[in-house]
Amino acid sequence: MFLRRALPLFYLQAFLHSIGTAEDKGHSTETVKMATDDITGSQDQAPLAIRTTITPSQQQPQPSPSSSPTFDIVATYKSLLSSDPEISMPVAAIEALIALLGATPATTAMETVSVIKTHASALLSAVPNPIPLKAGTDLFQQYLLRSLKGQTARGAPALSFDETREHLLANSRLFADRAKAAREQIAQRGAKYVKDGSVVLAAGGSRTVKTLLLRAADAHIARWGCARFKVVYVMDGSRDCVPAVAALRGKGVAVAEIAEAAMAFSLAAARVDMAFVGTEVVVQNGGLLSRMGTFQLATLCKSLRVPFYVAAETHKIVRVYPLSQWDLPRCGVKQNVLEFKTGEDVEEPVAEKNPLSVAGEGVKDPLSLEGEKGKAAPVDYTPPDLISSIITEQGVKMPAAVYDLLLDIYT
Predict the structure, then answer these.
(1) φ, ψ dihedrals at 286, nearest 5°
(2) What is the pLDDT of residues 130-152, one digit of tens each?
């Protein structure tokens, strides 16, 4: 009976140099040797050699067109913020990703999604407070996925990849225009809260709040010939405070400027009827992540029973759920507000600042909302139980309704 023993594992010998015709074609040669001896044959029999060739494309994977990162997403984002003072951080992040889409020679949907996700992560990791940017990048990625899947909000028929890409590029200003339109819609809704004889407190240098108060002044002027309400404006050091006060006074609105240290006194002494603030983002539970001092003002309003209203566009809603102030680092916020030092750690005495002074004096508050020496402005978390209502372009919402808005956006 003719018997064969079990064959040993075959092995490959790959030669980097070219042999024969493979050299002429630029191909490398591979020799496959397999043992074929049987138990009756010679043990010294040479294995069978099979020659094959490998093309250069098989030797190593070709890099994708987007593998060479020549697009600077961080520089583009900063340029957008500096060139347009009216743009918000989420919208700037969206426009930066649209610019990336135009500069990336991606040819497939999967490659496009991968490029967008990679650069979005790089952008978020480059800033101390990535949450406002995350609101924009998440929203754009969701829109991109819906477009690539043909699942647009209007129920439009599915588009090809090239058509979707061209559509996004042709409408690069669509998100910014919608954001500005949303700001105007919020102003129209919120202006109705400002009644005849009202005293309003505004804080944070919010452009949305400024627009709201200007629309309220327009409505008063159209009805009574003058603005019949007063504004207590908290001058917290942000660059938008002075222009806002000037614009309101230009409409004939009586404005009193106060420092942050005088907020509790002013709420009681001026008999404030309501407080309006903007926000950087609205978090998942209906709370706020905004400029330092927002939590303090909301706490004071709650204690003095003053309605605390937030003016926020829906593109600022983000899928983040902080538990408290100490939980902000887990959410990605990098700031050092509490820096404990002893006498040995302090190199030189810090100049004292009058706590009752307003912005514009020579001494700059190291915790001002413009930051210090290029550092990001500090933020705090305001829980939803301190918020009366959130005024959006889709209507006035209770904080508990934010989760429903998130479901509408991301499902």
Answers:
(1) 95, 0
(2) 999 999 999 888 888 877 776 44
- CATH dotted code for 73-172: 1.20.120
Token pair recorded at residue 94: 């969206």
- Give per-residue pLDDT as tens, 77-113: 998 888 887 788 888 898 898 888 888 776 677 888 8
Q: Which long-range contacts (CB under 8 A, 24 or more apart) does 10-15 make?
A: 10/34, 10/35, 14/54
Q: Which CATH superfamily is domain 186-329+355-410 in?
A: Translation initiation factor eif-2b; domain 2 (3.40.50.10470)
Task: Using DSSP, state whether 33 is helix, strand or coil.
Answer: strand
Q: pTM, whole model, 2 decimals?
A: 0.74
Are 148 and 120 in contact by the 8 Å Cβ rule? The answer is no
Would you kindly state where each structural domain of the chain is located, as residue ranges? 11-59, 73-172, 186-329+355-410
| Cβ density class 267-301: b for 16+ within 10 Å, e for less | beebebbbbbbbbbbbbbbbbbbbbbbbbebbebb
Q: For 281, list phi and psi in degrees, rounded to 5.
A: -150, 155
Q: Among residues 86, 302, 348, which one has the least CA distance to residue 208?
A: 86
